[in-house]
Amino acid sequence: MKLQASNETEKAGESLDDMDPDTEMSRTDMLQLAFWGCLLIAVAAASVAIAWPQAVGGTGPVLLISMAAGGMVFLLWVLKGAGRRLGLFPEKGAAEEAVANASPRFGWIESLDEAVLISDLGGAPIAANVHYKELTQIALSGQPDSASPVAVDRIFSAVPGLAAPVFRLSKAAKASESRREILPAITIGPDALPVQYEVTVAPLPRERVIWRLRQLNAAVDGAGAADMKALYVEDAPLGFFAAKPDGTITYANNWVRELIGLHETTHKVRLDDIMRPEFVRMLAKDRKSGAPGRADIMIRTRDGVEMPVQTITTWTGKGVQAQGRTILLTNAQAGLGREGRFPASASRPAQAGGDPMFDDAPFGAVRLEGNSVESAVIMDANRALLEIADGKSAPGTRFADLFVQDAEEPDALAAKLVDAVDKPVGLKLAGDDPKHVNVFVTLDAMGRPSVAYIIDMTEQRELELRLAQGEKMQAIGQLAGGVAHDFNNVLTGIMLNNDELMSKHPVGDPSYEYIKSIYEFSVRAKDLVHMLLAYARQQTFKREVFNVSDFLSEFSILIRQILDERIEFKTVHGRNLPYIKADKNQLETAILNLVTNARDAMLLSGRTGGSLTIRTAAASAEDAHAQGFGYVDDGDYLLIEVADTGHGIPENILNKIFQPFFTTKDVGVGTGLGLATVYGIIKQSEGYICPLSTVGEGTKFQIYLPALKAEDIPMPEIAGPDDEPAEPRPMDISGRGRILLVEDEKGLRDIAVMHLISRGYEVESAGDGEEALEILEDEPGSFDLIISDVVMPGMDGPTLIREAKAYLGEARVIFVSGYAERDIAKQLDDDREISFLPKPFNVRQLAERVKQQLGVRKEREAA
């Protein structure tokens, strides 16, 4: 035995002798040496306390008790717990290795088929299963390995879009609450694999939290691998949502959530929560056929407001497992037609296993490859882009070659394509007929162009140009109305003074011919002012209800006299024509202008004749929309169509024909106000005029006037035996009475006062409403008639009459204005009857109206 021990000692000595000094120093643990040194000192101190109790005094017993307690702890360390496994002299790192190799404290999490992490309330990891560790290695590839699991927020820290949902989950964990979040699709790992996770957090006993990460697209093996294109549905520049047959919405992208006003964590939303039941049925009508179905519906936002949208819905699966996917558009430029179906294109056959969200989207979509947007190459394009780009978007084509490049600024296109990243930018597609498009480019996780969306904005661009043209014409109309109003005052003064001159220089006077020439020019100027007011929609209208067939039958006799014998003329009346409410005289003026232009187009261009047709029919807004006139409001209309076989109007000037003073006729022929007058008359009649023209074939002007409903048509009055005939025109234009004349134009005011005084009236005048009100306050009830201009600086005419109500007594009121007659009586507070005299007027018209109004008052006083 001694020999054996001696041999073992020698071997140990040899082993120690052969040990590398550096290895021996690496095994030396300074903390262990300090621990044992302190222990020896403590034992020595205890021995002194036992041997010489008088040396330590009263602290001896306390020291002995502390040594006894420490000895018990040391024995427990050696016999039980960690000390039993580590020994008296544990090596450095032995404790950490023992913890790593120890059996898991939550062993049951290994039985779950999803990534699971156990943490404290603050998110510090405690235990994790194998799936979680594998996910950590994939997500944190390229970072130093760690023996212990990492927190959930560290896995997704490199993706800014996940910060918000992970923060909400951490907040719920800290509050010991349960929460579920579906994270947006991301790419992780060196291969940039597309994945999407559902993360659930729930509290456990002893202030612990369980995190469960379930991969959503991991189980969809039958549908193929996850497609990179699905990653861009969330941020696509159009709406998309998925729903079950029972109406439950399972997913809505960011576009839909912002439109409706839903939070991204809102759950259990149904289709009938965001739309009416009839619209829900429209989305499900093609569920059995599986064909994409189109519908125009109204979607309801969070605040209850409904807005129109277009939808394309595709259903897959059967029964309760069916899934409906819907695209939402708020613009009408999708080009889907009105047949209720998404048209298939023969330019690109359906691909097996393709994604309908990409292939059948009603807007252009293209997958790109390259390091920059300007140098990216097309890898794949959907049907819509092939149609929009006329087949020029084939794979292998450079993406920038699809668009028009400015020759003067060659770098402008590249700058716009870079600017199109994550926001729409307007460009033009190259081709014979360039189209306006919005381009939206998205980047992948590496910052390279991945997908681009091209939306055709040509129709919207045309609508914007048409709106700008309408605003321009409205501004011109306001200018024309203002000029006509001021010129009316000047023209009225000229006509009144001319009447005075004609009374002093009768026929036979040497100056009579000159004065008569002034009168004729004044009449021509009056007609021009009426045209300007018609274009500005500010002329006086006397609208009445009538049947257009009877109206045109009588009016066609005059039209025949205007036309040349070489022109064939006919009228075609439709059946069941609705009644309209319009001014017959103004409508005659509009039709005469159209007929005159048609005659000139068929004769002045070297032609020998042609045909002119006036057709009437009952129509609706859909008929106008089918002709391309989408600005016609919904409703029923009476259509009056004036068609000729002239030379036609070129397309480049068709949008200018209604502008005042625009004409294609020779210098000195016409005023250029004909079609502008027609436009104003029809618009003031609340209708629409729509031109259709083909060069070499002729032109059609379609007039849509609102049709009256049956209840709005008044019953014809039957004249009784006691009915008196209309009041005859007064012949004696002199009279008696006291008149207050209110007019801001001094020259016009003075000449009018002079003429009224010369005919026997007592007249006082005021230059504005405030001065007139002071006169009425000083002399209440002393005037028989008030003549006031409607538009004046400061207090206008209706305001004057309303403010002076208590001082008028039984005085009658005549309003004069160069603008159209408004319903002025509604602006007054009482039921006072008023009369309206449009400018310009002559002396006789003014005197007759005054005599008529004073005569009505005398009759009432006598009664």
Which short descriptors sum up this protein?
single chain, 863 residues, alpha+beta, Beta-Lactamase, 5-stranded antiparallel β-sheet, 28 helices, elongated, disordered N terminus
Give a description of the structure:
With 863 residues, this protein is of the alpha+beta class. It has 6 domains: 27-98, no CATH class; 103-218, PAS domain (Beta-Lactamase, 2-Layer Sandwich); 228-356, Beta-Lactamase (2-Layer Sandwich); 363-456, PAS domain (Beta-Lactamase), CATH 3.30.450; 544-712, 2-Layer Sandwich (Heat Shock Protein 90), CATH 3.30.565; 738-862, 3-Layer(aba) Sandwich (Rossmann fold), CATH 3.40.50.2300. The chain is built from 28 helices and 29 strands. The strands form 7 sheets. Strands 2-1-7-6-3 form a 5-stranded antiparallel β-sheet. Strands 9-8-12-11-10 form a 5-stranded antiparallel β-sheet. Strands 14-13-17-16-15 form a 5-stranded antiparallel β-sheet, with helices on both faces. α17 (458-504) packs antiparallel against α18 (512-535). The longest helix is centred in the middle third of the chain and has 47 residues, at 458-504. The relative contact order is 0.04. Mean pLDDT is 75; it is low at 1-26, 218-229, 331-353 and 718-728.
How do the helices and strands line up, and which of them pair or pack?
Elements: H1 2-18, H2 21-27, H3 30-51, H4 53-56, H5 60-79, H6 81-86, H7 94-101, E1 115-120, E2 125-128, H8 130-139, H9 152-155, H10 163-174, E3 179-182, E4 186-188, E5 193-195, E6 197-204, E7 208-215, E8 239-243, E9 249-252, H11 254-260, H12 271-274, H13 277-283, E10 293-300, E11 306-316, E12 323-329, H14 356-359, E13 364-369, E14 377-381, H15 383-388, H16 412-419, E15 425-429, E16 435-443, E17 449-456, H17 458-504, H18 512-535, E18 544-546, H19 548-562, E19 567-572, E20 580-582, H20 584-603, E21 610-620, H21 621-626, E22 636-644, H22 651-654, H23 674-684, E23 688-694, E24 698-706, E25 738-742, H24 746-758, E26 762-766, H25 769-778, E27 785-789, H26 797-803, H27 805-808, E28 812-817, E29 834-838, H28 843-862
Parallel strand pairs: 19-21, 25-26, 25-27, 27-28, 28-29
Antiparallel strand pairs: 1-2, 1-7, 3-6, 4-5, 6-7, 8-9, 8-12, 10-11, 11-12, 13-14, 13-17, 15-16, 16-17, 18-20, 21-22, 22-24, 23-24
